[in-house]
Amino acid sequence: MRARYGVPLALTALGTACLGYATLVEPRSFRLRRVTVPVLRPGMPSLRVLQISDVHMVSGQRKKQRWLRSLAGLRPDFVINTGDNLSDPEAVPEVLDALGPLMDFPGAYVFGSNDYYGPKLRNPARYLLEKASGRHGLNGNAPAVGAVHNPWEGMRDAFDAAGWVGLSNSRGRLKLEGGQEIALTGLDDPHIRRDRYSAVIGGPEHDADLSLALVHAPYLRSLDAFTADGYPLILAGHTHGGQLCVPFYGALVTNCDLDTDRVKGLSTHVAGGNRSYLHVSAGCGANRYTPVRFACPPEATLLTLTARD
């Protein structure tokens, strides 16, 4: 009798332990990823870029706020925010409090769908179905109905007042303390079809020390356009690194048309005869209705940009 029920009970206990870990432990196990990318012109001193993405702030997330504030101690040369700061319409003040110390550094940002609209409860299996059908977000699906509108304008105004450059289908520049000029080109979120590459077409600005490309969701049409135009590095977020991953296998979905092999971290992208580096942040939050992570801890990334060979 003991053997008959032993295996099901063990599996139930394992499943309960995994669920508890994915809900209570890993979502609060914040990490800093460190990456080196050789994209600067020969002889140029290295630069350190802190990328923050997918904060998905919910009111009351004190540990996340403290961790984000602590990242200012890294003293980056500049900060890049690749969107989805909100998962609660009431959390704008807490986002600004958490990012406040980082806003003392030069920075730039793009927004994601969850900056504009509040999250909705949905069946997690839909992500697998969307992957199978090739339909993600509003790309091929019906327009959202009854969406909650977030008060993103106040967040935008605070970022702008701090000197961060908004890059929603636009270009901008950062001048660093060392005198370097960084040209930036950004797209609004392709996940909800707000991207307009025709507004920023033209490629890198060769009178700058470096040109970077930013987009929240790494849809292939955006990556192809940036790469074909010759940008050396593209920064994105959105994927949550798969969020729920299988140990020793990896992510099952990316929530866009990017392949799972490049769901997070540094990789390359090829289009139009050019090759770009692509860094996708796994982000440091999750939708308030699916506040879980497994085998994919929340993160920010410190990218050290070095000279090309």
Record keyword descriptors for this entry.
single chain; 309 residues; alpha/beta; 6-stranded mixed β-sheet
Q: Using DSSP, what is the number of strands?
A: 14
Distance between the termini: 68 Å
The number of distinct helices, counting runs of at least 4 residues, comes to 7
Using only C-alpha atoms, the radius of gyration works out to: 20 Å
Q: Report the principal-axis shape.
A: globular
Helical residues, percent: 10-25%
Estimate the mean pLDDT confidence.
93
- Estimated share of beta-strand residues: 15-25%
Low-confidence regions: none
Strand order of the largest sheet: 1-14-2-3-4-5
Biggest β-sheet strands, sense, barrel: 6 strands, mixed
Secondary structure class reads alpha/beta
Order of helices and strands: HEEHEHEHHHEEEEHEEEEEE
Q: Care to describe what's here?
A:
The radius of gyration is 20 Å and the shape is globular. Helix content is 24%, strand content 24%. The termini are far apart. The strands form three sheets. A six-stranded mixed sheet has the order 1-14-2-3-4-5, covered by helices on one side. Strands 6-7-8-9-13-12 form a six-stranded mixed sheet. A two-stranded antiparallel ribbon has the order 10-11. The chain has 309 residues and is of the alpha/beta class. Strand 3 (78-81), helix 3 (92-99) and strand 4 (107-109) form a beta-alpha-beta unit. The model has no long low-confidence stretch (mean pLDDT 93). Helix 2 (62-70) packs parallel to helix 3 and helix 3 packs parallel to helix 6 (152-161).
